[in-house]
Every structure is written in C-alpha cells, then in structure tokens.
Amino acid sequence: MKKKYLLLLFLALFTVGNVFAQKGKSTPQKGHELIFNIKDSKDNLVYLVIHYNEKLILKDSVKPTSPGKFIFKGDNRYDDGLYSLVSQDKRLYLNFIIDNNQFFTYNLDTTTNVNNFSVSRSPENEEMLKFQRKTAEAQKVSMEWSKKRKEFDEKGIKDSADFYMDKLKGLNEEMRTFIENLIAAHPDYLFSKMQKSYMEIDVPEFKKEDGTTDQEAQVVYYRTHFWDNFDLADHRFIYIPSFEPKMKDYFTKLLYHQESDTINQYIDMFLAKTEPDTFMYRYCVSWLTYEFETSKIIGHDAVFCHIAKNNQLAGKCYWLDEDIIGKYQKRVKRLEPILIGKIAPELIIPDTNLYDDARYWKSSYRLTKPYTILWFYDPNCPTCKKESKALRQVYDSLETIGKRNFDVYAIGNDDTIEAWKKYVKENNYPWTNVGGNKGNIDYLDYFGIYETGNPAMFILNSKHEIILNKRIDMHNLPQFLAEYEKITRLKAEEAAKAAENKE
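Above: the chain's sequence. Below: its structure in token form.
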C-alpha cells in the first residue's frame, strides 16, 4: 500500500474536541482561569466550543473584561481536551489544548496568523503552537514549490520538475520527523496522540511463494493493525476529530461487506483495546450496536446479535437498566433463529382448500428446486401486490428459458380468509400458495412477521439453511443466487486447498 503525503494529514488538525482527564497525572489545581487577549477584537462575546460526534457543542461563553480581553474563570474544571475559541460572529479564532494545567494566558489577534500568537504557563499549548507555525510555513513553501514543479512539468523540463518534486518529498519527510520527535518527546500529550492518530499504517510487502504480492495478507494486516496509532484506552479520543471518521472508515467501509464472522472477530479485537467500565467502552459499544442494529446490509443482524450477547447481555453494560436489557434479550431471541446460516423449520400449512385432510397441507421441505423462497404477504397490502407481480415476472422469465432454480412457498396472512382465497384464485400464481392462519407452528411469530409486517422474504438452500433473510429487489434474485453459488464454490475450493496443505 502506498503512503499518502503526510502534509495533507497534518492540515486535518484544525478542528475541535473534548476529553476525560488522563490517569497517572498529579492532583490538578482546583478551578480554571483561561485568559485570552485578542488584539483588535471588537467582540462583545466569545464562545468556548468542543467537538463531539461530529458536532460542535457550546461549553461556555464570556464577555470582555476590557476591550479584547476575555477570561473564562470558575471553580469547576473543564475536561482535558482540544477546544476552540470562536468569535461573536462564529469565526474560528483559535484551537488550543486544555490539559491538567487550566491556568494560562493566550495572546492572539483577529488575523488568526499563528506567527502573531503566544502562550504562557501551558507547555502543551507551546508545543502545539510550534507545530502550527511549522505547518503554516510548510504550507507556504509547499504551495510555491508545487507551482514551480507544475510549471516546469507543463513546459516539459523534466529535470527541473523532478528537482521540485524531490524538494516536496524532502519537506514531507522533514514534517514527518518533526511530528515523530514531538510524539517521542511528549507521548502523553493529547496533541501528540492526535498527531500519531493521523499517521498511516505501514503495511509490509508480503509475498507469495511465486514472488507476487500477497494482497490478501496485506489487507488482513491492515485490518488487524488499523488502530495501532490510536490509544483506545484513553477516553479523550472520543472527543478528538480523528476518532469518529476512523470509526466510520473501519466499520462502515473497510469491514462493512465482510461476512458477519469476520466483522465479529474485529469488533471483539477493537473492544478489547478499550478498558472495561469506562466511558470509552460505553461509547464504542453503543456506537457499534446502533450501527449494526439499524444496518440494511445482509448479515449485519448477526453482528448485532454478537455484540449484544457479548456485551449488553453479558453484564458488561453497567449503564443500562433492566428494562433495556430485557428489550435486548427479546430482540436477540427473535433474531437468532432466522439469521443467515440457520436451518429454517419445516412449514406445513394448508392451501386454499383449508381442509383437515393432510393432502391439502403443503410442506416447505417438499419442493424440488435447489432454492426455496418463503414469501410472506398480505393480499390487501399494495406493496405485497406489487412485489408479488415482480416475483411472477422473474419466475416466468426464468421458467421460459429453462433456468428457474427456485420454488416459491407463498404464505398469505389475512384475517379475512375468503379475501385471501379470492386473491390467489384471481392471480393464479404458479407456485405453492398456503395460508389461512393455520400451520404446524406459529410461523408469523417464528419469522418475526408480527414485528416487521408484510411483505417479507427468506431464501433457503437445498439444506434448508437461510441464505437471505431480507427482502431484495425481485429482479435481483437471479444475480443474488448466482453470486451465492459462486461464493459457495470458492469457499469449497479454498477448504479443499487448505486440507491438501495440511496433508
């Protein structure tokens, strides 16, 4: 994997955040007094804001004690973190750190030129200001050299273009060294940890036996080491600008379309990096639970169940009351039997004859095609009618060309049985039609129809395993089944290859 130019990452600094106090520090002085002298300021009010969950949250505001002088003073302490000072008209003046020492003075002006800034009695803010000045100068030089490189490149003067490209690379390395030295000198500074979190993971050049790059090994390494530059035991990371985007990149992009077992493995690894009974753990569990419980991606319900069983239902979520825990128990109990990979029970339901005679009770297990679609519908539901017609189109088109590889076991449920019988007769659907609110089990409860409503769709393979538990576009059914068969074949080949290597 190629490294990105770090200079672009350094520029991501200028946002805001908030944090908890760090462990291991000396007992801090009570209260706070933050003095800001803003040259040429005409503000009648300035704001202290904090970053949380990609939003800016107002923490405090003060009026000037004299023109351009603003003092935040009180008996309480602010949480350690990265804050922003914002003008009366919502312009950003300054980003700064509030740490163990909450008695300091910052001098600035309305131009927001960091070369005009100074700070006293705050070592971490002094280091941050050095970085800001270094970055501002690097930006200026980088823009100048980039312009020259482009000019020479357009003129076809390769040697000169390469000269400025080398200078840009050298500048990038200079900034990298500057950051690494900062991190090494002050590893516990929140600012240092932020800078480390912006750095890319170096992925080794894994090789296969034939000498080619082992891309799969690289991907696995990247997934496994994705959080190496984040101190997930430090609660303050919840409130810094790099954390929420990284969570989204990891769980909603990098892992989003992996199989549930793979996602579960990395979720467990991620949560193990946090400390139990902490706000960081609480935040991460809550974020992950919501993300996968509300996801529309196939298989993510299994991820939700895994999270809940290993966290909320394992007694680890101390902040939840018994009613909430009960709701998780109920939801997991409903979802688990119908997760992908589970064996669907045999359904024996009468057809429109509704006789007690066993000849008129049809089994979902006695269909002949490789796949069975369990189609739950209500004849009075407009969406059900529309989707049933779409299913009929796919069914007929594949039947015409001799490629229909699924049967349909359509389950109509309506309090008015005569209306259901009439609907089936009028539409003359060519598949197995059952209903009448009778059956060998309460199928509406088992498949969650009372909760989700109609229509609902499940697809079973020849072993009666659920391979799809969400409704998809009917016209995508052939593609879905073809993709399922391809994946199944590849897994079988990989298993066979792995067995050979063990022998």
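The chain has four domains: 11-121, 133-197, 215-338, 348-487.
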